Amino acid sequence: MGLITTTMATTPKLAGHVISWGVAEALFPDELESGDRCVVQPCAAGVLIAVIDGAGHGTEAAVAARIAAHTLETFAAESPIALVLRCHEELRQTRGAVMTLAFVHTRDQTLTWLGIGNVEAALLHSGREAGPDAERVFLRAGVVGFQLPPLRADVTPLEPFDTLIMATDGINPDFDHDGALEKDPQQIADQILARQWKRTDDGLVVVARYLGGVAP
After folding, report:
1. I need a labelling partner for 1 at 20 to 30 A (CA). Which of 17, 49, 57, 78 fits?
2. Residue 203: pLDDT above 90?
3. Could you tell me the CATH number of the domain that includes residue 110?
4. Nearest-CA neighbor of 176 among 128, 120, 101, 215?
């Protein structure tokens, strides 16, 4: 059985006053490091949230994921499309990665997101009376560092307490998010990992809740 690691805290992680967030992850059995990584990087315009899945698992997947994560952290203020293009160049000598990027813009209270590959992302809108219906990122086929599709980022409005859930393909893509808006982000991430990890790959879940504030 793989090792499940969760980020446990009595209070949520904060990125400025923009989001609170939590992460939970599981390592593929018999591997020493994960090919899944997340980035939560505040900058002047808002916060970049990204989940990266290096192709396959093990050391080579972890190398690709680390390179991509470093690139995203370094240039977080750039547009998501520009960031994917940067990662594509940096990953050409690796086995590549899939990733989904989401940028929370504080000035106009929007989320700009795009996905290359199969890192799922769902946005739960807190103000909707119809229950837990989620808006999903549009995923385009490709591998960053190997072959990119035509890139297009979508923009959706945000309201305070909207909640973003992102998960690699080691997690069942139909992950249950019922009742998620009543839980804190770390609880949601822990619950999804515990219930929906396939145990056939690394698994990682990031949950970020928009607070409506501004970045530092």
Report:
1. 49
2. yes
3. 3.60.40.10
4. 120
